[in-house]
Amino acid sequence: MLGELSEQEVVEILENNIIGRIGCNDGEITYIVPVSYLIRDGYVLCHSRLGLKIEIMRKNPAVCFEVDEIRDYDNWRCVIAWGNYVELRNEDELNEARQYFSDYMLTMKTSKTSEPPAEQEGRAHTDHDISFGTPIFYKIEFTKITGRFERSL
């Protein structure tokens, strides 16, 4: 049975997961990439190093965000949200975002790539250095959210 998720179910899926996908487009290419995230005050909070995703979202802040819960082919739930990329630049907002991620990571068993990278000023970049660069914190402010599900009968 195919159906539409309630608003409460959409919120639960967003709050109970930490990996989603961001879709962005700069007018030439479309890029879809998994990201770790936290929900904070009704928006998605993320971090990244400077790269293609950030460059595209800076050019065109309109993004799509997706979170899936898949048990099997006939049992899944999916939330898709549209919104805008907003890079955090205010020092108070940045400190709050860093603290929020740090507090959360203390309660989770995570990989190094899901943790915000440490600031590495004055270091030479290498292709194998995953912690290079100043972390960029950003949020996705939703403009529309929808959710669907399929359950076997």
The number of helical segments is 3
Order of helices and strands: EHEEEEHEEHE
CATH class wording = Mainly Beta
What's the rounded overall pLDDT mean? 86
Which structural category do the helix and sheet elements fall into?
A: alpha+beta
Percent in strands: 35-45%
Q: Using DSSP, what is the number of strands?
A: 8
Number of domains: 1
What is the CA–CA distance across the termini?
A: 7 Å
Gyration radius, rounded: 17 Å
Q: Which overall shape is indicated by the principal axes computed on the Cα atoms?
A: globular
Could you say what the CATH architecture is? Roll
Helix proportion: 10-25%
For this structure, the CATH topology is Pnp Oxidase, Chain A
CATH superfamily label: Electron Transport, Fmn-binding Protein, Chain A
Low-pLDDT ranges: 120-131
Largest sheet: 8 strands, antiparallel
Name the features.
153 residues; single chain; Pnp Oxidase, Chain A; 8-stranded antiparallel beta sheet; alpha+beta; globular; 3 helices
Characterization of this structure:
There is one protein chain. This protein is an alpha+beta fold and 153 residues long. The chain has a single domain, classed as Electron Transport, Fmn-binding Protein, Chain A (Pnp Oxidase, Chain A, Roll). It is built from three helices and eight strands. Strands 1, 2, 3, 4, 5, 6, 7 and 8 form an eight-stranded antiparallel beta sheet that branches. A hairpin with a 2-residue loop joins strand 4 and strand 5. The chain is globular and about 50 Å long. The chain starts with a strand and ends with a strand.
Short structural summary:
The protein has three helices and eight strands, in the order βαββββαββαβ.
